C-alpha cells in the first residue's frame, strides 16, 4: 500500500498535464501564467514542445508526470487511453494526486477510482464544462468528484484553472453524471432544438434580428420554468392550475404538424412523443414537471 501524503507542496512540480490537445494545452498555459510550475507529456511530443516557450517542462516518459507533481491532470481522448497510461506506471511511485478530466462514463470513473484505491493512489475524477479559451476565467467550470479532503487540498490550483470549479460529491462518477445530464441531455439537445427552430423560422422569412429581440424574454421565461421544475421535483408537487400535460401534448402536435411539411422536425417530434407517453401513463392533468415520473423504456 502506498503511504504518500494527500496534501500539496511536497514535490518538484505543482502540476503535470498529460495530454496536450486544445484543452490540455489551455490548462497548462493558464497554470504557467498563474506562476505554477508545470510539466507536460503528450503521446505526440511535438504538441508538448509547443508549450516550452510558455515555460513548461516537457517530459519524455509519462511515468515522470506521476512521479514528480503534487497534482497530475489527465486530459486525453478516452477512458481506454487513461487505462493504457496507468498500465505504464508503477503505482507505488505516484507522488501526488491524480485528477482525471477525460470525458467518460460514470461507471468508468468509479472503475478508475477503484484501481486508485487498490493501489493507494489519491484520485479525483472530473468533467470540464467550458471551452479551452475559457480556461482561467471566472466563468469556467470544472466539476470535481471524489474525497472532499482531497478536493480541498487541490482546490486552489483547480480554481485557478476554472474560477467556477466546485466539488460535486464523494462518488467519483458524480461529475460525469452531471456532464451527461447538463451538457448532453440538456445543453446539446437545447442547442439542436434552437438551431432547428431557427432554420424553420428563417425559411419562413423570420429574420435573426427578430429572434434576437425576443431572446431576452424567452430566456427569462425559460429560467423561471426550469427553477419551477426543480422546485416541483424537490417537493413532489405536480398539480397545476397552468398548462397541463394534455395542453402540452395538443400544442406539441400542432407545432409538429406546422413544421414537418417544411423540413426535419426532429426535436419537436421527439418531444411530442414524450408528451404522448406522459398522457398515456396517466399524467394528463399534471404539470410538465411530472414527466420526471416516467420510467425509462
From TrEMBL:
Domain annotation NADPH-dependent reductive aminase-like C-terminal: ranges: 172-294
PANTHER family for the chain: CYTOKINE-LIKE NUCLEAR FACTOR N-PAC (PTHR43580:SF2), OXIDOREDUCTASE GLYR1-RELATED (PTHR43580)
One Gene Ontology MF term: NADP binding
Protein name per the record: Uncharacterized protein
Family in the record: Belongs to the HIBADH-related family.
Record keywords, A-Z: Oxidoreductase
Domain 6-phosphogluconate dehydrogenase NADP-binding residues, every copy: 15-169
Domain of life: Bacteria
Gene3D superfamilies noted in UniProt: N-(1-d-carboxylethyl)-l-norvaline Dehydrogenase, domain 2, NAD(P)-binding Rossmann-like Domain
Amino acid at each position: 500500500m502506498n503511504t504518500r501524503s494527500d496534501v500539496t507542496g511536497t514535490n518538484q512540480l505543482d502540476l503535470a498535464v498529460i495530454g496536450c490537445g486544445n484543452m490540455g494545452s489551455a490548462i497548462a498555459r493558464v497554470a504557467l501564467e498563474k506562476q505554477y510550475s508545470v510539466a507536460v507529456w503528450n503521446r505526440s511530443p511535438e504538441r508538448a514542445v509547443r508549450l516550452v516557450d510558455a515555460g513548461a517542462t516537457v517530459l519524455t516518459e509519462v511515468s515522470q508526470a506521476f512521479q514528480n507533481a503534487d497534482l497530475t491532470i489527465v486530459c486525453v481522448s478516452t477512458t481506454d487511453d487513461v487505462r493504457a497510461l496507468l498500465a505504464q506506471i508503477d503505482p507505488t511511485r505516484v507522488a501526488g494526486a491524480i485528477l482525471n478530466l477525460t470525458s467518460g462514463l460514470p461507471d468508468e470513473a468509479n472503475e478508475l477510482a477503484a484501481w486508485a484505491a487498490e493501489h493507494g493512489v489519491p484520485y479525483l475524477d472530473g468533467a470540464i464544462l467550458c471551452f479551452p479559451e475559457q480556461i482561467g476565467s471566472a466563468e469556467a467550470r470544472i466539476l470535481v468528484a471524489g474525497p472532499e479532503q482531497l478536493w480541498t487540498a487541490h482546490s486552489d490550483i483547480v480554481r485557478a484553472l476554472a474560477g467556477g470549479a466546485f466539488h460535486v460529491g464523494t462518488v467519483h462518477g458524480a461529475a460525469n453524471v452531471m456532464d451527461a445530464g447538463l451538457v448532453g441531455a440538456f445543453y446539446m439537445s437545447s442547442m439542436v432544438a434552437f438551431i432547428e427552430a431557427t432554420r424553420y423560422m428563417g425559411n419562413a422569412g423570420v429574420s435573426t434580428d427578430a429572434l434576437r429581440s425576443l431572446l431576452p424574454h424567452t430566456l427569462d421565461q425559460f429560467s423561471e420554468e426550469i427553477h419551477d421544475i426543480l422546485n416541483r421535483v424537490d417537493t413532489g408537487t405536480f398539480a397545476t392550475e397552468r398548462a397541463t400535460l394534455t395542453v402540452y401534448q395538443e400544442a406539441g402536435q400542432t407545432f409538429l404538424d406546422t413544421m414537418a411539411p417544411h423540413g426535419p422536425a426532429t426535436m419537436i417530434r421527439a418531444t411530442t412523443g414524450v408528451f404522448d407517453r406522459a398522457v398515456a401513463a396517466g399524467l394528463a392533468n399534471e404539470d410538465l414537471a411530472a414527466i420526471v415520473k416516467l420510467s425509462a423504456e
